[in-house]
Design goal:
The chain has 469 residues and is an alpha+beta fold. It has two domains: 60-101 and 286-422, Up-down Bundle (f41 fragment of flagellin, N-terminal domain), CATH 1.20.1330; 107-279, no CATH class. It has seven helices and 14 strands.
Length: 469
Amino acid sequence: MAVAGLSQGLKTSLYSLQDIGDQISTTNTRLSTGKKVNSALDNALNYFLAQGLSTKATNYSTVLDNINLGINTITQANAGLTSITSSLQQALGTLKSALSTQGTQSKVTATVGFKDSLGNAVTTSSAASATVFDSTFAKANALQIGDVVTVALQTVSSTGDITTLGTTGLTITAGTTVKNLLDFYNNNTTYNTAGASKTLSAYLSDSGNLVIESTLSGQQSNTSTTQTFALQVGLNTQARTGTGLTGQYVSSVFNFSGGVGNTVALTSVTSTNQTGQIVSGTTQQATRAAAATAFRSVLQQISQSAGDAGYNGTNLLNGDFLTTYTNDTQSASIVTQGSVINSTNLGFATDVVQAGSTFAALQSYTGDAVRNLQSDTEISAAINKINNALGTVTQFATNLSTNSNLLQNRQVFTTSTIRNFTNGADQLTLADINQEGANLSSLQTKQQLAVQALSLANRSDQSILRLFG
């Protein structure tokens, strides 16, 4: 069967109208998606390049999330360190305040002629070279070769019976220095068991006087007898003769004074023997006892703050380590090594309940919790520990801060990287909305003209048919 054909005018108008419709459809797609390249058919090269850049941007978005997580983990650890530092500083202030108050510990201050070659009081830094004795009698109250300094720890029962727990003495020789004298008692195993808290300390006061201190105090229950600890310091001297450069050489080489709030009981005063005894207070001094409580509280706060410093399962204050990858191939990373922050690692012994009150048990005390901080030496030791702990915490906080700064730098760089990859993909695929809008308006006008042209072509054909009518 034959098919009637269209005239050339109709065909031209119809094809033009179809082309315009396709162009309008393409323009509408670009306007609706905002892209001029929506598939590989639009522009294969730009499409696949943009797809690769978009994939990179997506991968680096994951990297950025990981970096943000690392920063938050370090921030949480730093918050724990800040809390620990605050607790340590608070305890430090409390201890320093307590140090200026009166304690109840046994303490004897002996005014001895510890002077250097210039006549100045011997200090800790000069104690190693300053000799104890004075062979020229130029220093009043100086020791002499052959003198014996004795120290004894005693208990006094409720009935007044005195029991000597141990006596030790140092004989002065030509080579004896002030440091030798101090070391003899501080390191003496009769009282100070290796690795345990000291029960006897010797040090120099600011004025260069000898201070011997017992760290035992108060009433202690020993089996069925209540006993009070006492400290006895004595000097057995050689006979003194001659006149010194500063006047008649005195026979009272030791001028005893007690610990703050205590009075020395002189048990022997002769030309060759002097002995002073201090009995510890039977009740704790309130301010120092409060300082001891605060000190023990710090040990608990350290563990609690450190335990709460974790983030997303990682606790840098518990020794965990954090690996933060900084690129999409995981070939570059920043590793943050944690540290175990607790009382033991910061130099504080673990809390220990008092095990007993016999002298042997007291010698084996371990732990700061059993200290009542009634003595100057105990408070000074606690202050030193806190200062050391603050140094450790500050150093670790500095390390964390360094890694945090590195991660923040990578955070800025990664954000810029994502923006660059995204912009690159957009430049290859995004459409110019203004241009596409103008194209659509132009195409719609052409479409209207094409419809009119098609109508005119159709009328022309109809006019020809009327000639045969």
